[in-house]
Every structure is written in C-alpha cells, then in structure tokens.
C-alpha cells in the first residue's frame, strides 16, 4: 500500500506492521512504546492453549498474562471480544458459533432497516454534509454540491429526523478518525466505521451520537474483520462508557471522573494541583477528552489499546475503572 512503508520496530518484532502508519504522518504520530515481551505478553500460542478441547476458556490464566504484558496485535480482536464480556469464557466453541451467527443476523437486519431509510448505509459510501433540513423538509439539490444522496420527501417522524440530521456529523468525525493509519486510506473502511456508528445511533436514541464515540469504535473496526462482530464489540464497550457521553444543561458525563482526577492529583502531587488552581484549571476541564475517549488521542494506536486491555483485565467485572485511568 502506497504511503505505508514507515513502521517502527520494537523488541525485535515489527509490531507497527500490524497497524501501518502513512509515511507522511510520521512526524504527527506519538512514538509507540508497547513491546511484545516473551513470557509476558499474551501470544497466539498462549491464547489458543488457554482453551479446552470443547472451547472453555481459562480466563484467569489469560487475564494474568494480559496484566503482565498486554496482548499481541495478531490476536487482539478475538481476545477483546472476551475482555468486553461479549462471550462467556465457560461457553463452548459450538455455543459461541451459534451466538455469533445470531448476532450477525440481528446486526444485518438492523442494517437493512437503516438502509431502507438512507440507502447509503451499507453502500461503501457515507455523507459529510446534511441530507435533510432541520425542519424535516428536503434540501434543494442545487444547494448541496457533490452530495452522494439527499432525502427526497418530508420527514415527520421525530426519531427518524434526529437520526438523519446527525449522519453528516458522524461522517465528518469518520474522516478525522485515526487518519494517520493506512487502514483508513480506504473509503470502504471509513464507510464501515460510519455504518456501525450510524446503526448504533439509530438503536440508541436516548444518547444518540456524541463526538468521541468514533474513537472508541475505530479499534473494533480495525481489529475485527466482520462488521457485525465489530458492532457487537463496540456495543459492549459502550455499555460501560455511554455515561461518559451523556451531557445535560447542568452536568457532563465525565464530571465524576474529573472530580476523581482532581482528588488523585491533589494527593499524589499537591504542588501540581495548586499550580493548576492558580491557573484557574482546578476543575480539570482540560482532561475531558482524555477521560471521555480513554486517551485514544494522547497515545499511539498500539499504546492506547495496551492501556485499555491492562486496565480492563485488572477489573473483575471486565469494565473500565475511572479511578484507575485517572491514576494512569
């Protein structure tokens, strides 16, 4: 792939080769520090050895290995499905196959439902401009240049209208997501991310779409080949993170975490806390993005995933602990 020659070599293995970076983006990407360590990192061999003959997984053994050295890039996707609670470690291979097939059927049924409203869903294309006016009336085609598709009739259903209105914002965020990775040089891969976010938004009107969800969803799209599997992994992640994105007129989703971060810094480094207070930064609002998207934009792709998996594996319920992230 053109522009993908640049890779880092760490610990004798070309780990960045699993997620190649566009050569022109080299200067803008944080240096990856994660290294695959023999005897500590969960390797493909150790992962497969953790299953019994019929498919039961020794989860405690796997978690201990992840806590010691993370997950090797070659198996991150399949391990994350278990880490996020998508599959019961006590289930068998046959039981998981049936569940996977059922979930895929369900996802593609939802996708077909969305496609009937907006044909671009599942087409390999996506929108970055409005497809309908805020009052539900069709836009004049002459007023929107280079638009792939526009709503042709009035939309009166409030839920449908709200969903259609946010699709362009999802598209704008998609083209900004991990754009330094060669993976997203492909418009079809960007469209897969847009599809998953659009369908999740349709199914969850109570929270809808909020900027930052794209950063949580992107790794799932990259790690899991089947779009339905990526959706369900994202859905599992959002069960634990959705409150981060819930904002009202009086509060923000990460407000509790900001307060926790303030307490941690005040305890660990009182002078830094006082300095931030003097700069009128004592409310730690500068950390909103870090906590909302779990440091996705502060670290390289590999390092962010390493952070996620070690924190999640350290929690008995397989959920991300705000206090742990604050301390990190």
TrEMBL record:
<dbReference type="GO" id="GO:0005096">
    <property type="term" value="F:GTPase activator activity"/>
</dbReference>
<dbReference type="InterPro" id="IPR035969">
    <property type="entry name" value="Rab-GAP_TBC_sf"/>
</dbReference>
<dbReference type="InterPro" id="IPR000195">
    <property type="entry name" value="Rab-GAP-TBC_dom"/>
</dbReference>
<dbReference type="Pfam" id="PF00566">
    <property type="entry name" value="RabGAP-TBC"/>
</dbReference>
<feature type="domain" description="Rab-GAP TBC">
    <location>
        <begin position="70"/>
        <end position="315"/>
    </location>
</feature>
<protein>
    <submittedName>
        <fullName>Rab GTPase-activating protein 22 isoform X3</fullName>
    </submittedName>
</protein>
């Amino acid at each position: 792939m053109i522009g993908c020659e640049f890779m880092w070599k760490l610990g004798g293995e070309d780990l960045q080769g699993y997620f190649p970076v566009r050569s022109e983006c080299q200067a803008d990407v944080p240096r990856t520090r994660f290294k695959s360590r023999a005897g500590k990192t969960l390797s493909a061999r150790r992962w497969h050895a953790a299953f019994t003959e019929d498919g039961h997984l020794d989860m405690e053994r796997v978690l201990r290995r992840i806590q010691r050295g993370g997950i090797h890039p070659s198996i991150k996707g399949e391990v994350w499905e278990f880490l996020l609670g998508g599959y019961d470690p006590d289930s068998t291979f046959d039981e998981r196959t049936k569940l996977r097939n059922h979930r895929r059927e369900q996802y593609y049924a939802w996708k077909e439902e969305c496609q009937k409203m907006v044909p671009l869903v599942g087409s390999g294309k996506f929108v970055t401009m409005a497809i309908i006016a805020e009052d539900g009336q069709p836009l004049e085609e002459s007023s929107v240049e280079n638009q792939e598709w526009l709503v042709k009739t009035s939309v009166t259903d409030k839920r449908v209208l709200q969903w259609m209105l946010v699709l362009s914002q999802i598209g704008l965020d998609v083209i900004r997501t991990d754009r330094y990775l060669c993976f997203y040089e492909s418009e079809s891969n960007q469209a897969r991310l847009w599809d998953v976010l659009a369908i999740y938004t349709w199914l969850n009107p109570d929270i809808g779409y909020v900027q930052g969800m794209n950063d949580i969803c992107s790794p799932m799209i990259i790690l899991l080949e089947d779009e339905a599997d990526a959706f369900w992994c994202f859905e599992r992640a959002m069960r634990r993170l959705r409150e981060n994105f819930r904002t009202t007129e009086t509060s923000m989703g990460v407000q509790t975490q900001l307060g926790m971060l303030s307490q941690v810094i005040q305890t660990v480094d009182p002078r830094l806390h006082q300095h931030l207070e003097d700069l009128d930064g004592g409310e730690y609002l500068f950390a909103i993005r870090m906590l909302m998207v779990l440091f996705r934009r502060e670290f390289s792709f590999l390092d962010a995933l390493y952070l996620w998996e070690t924190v999640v594996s350290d929690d008995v319920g397989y959920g991300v602990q705000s206090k742990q992230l604050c301390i990190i």
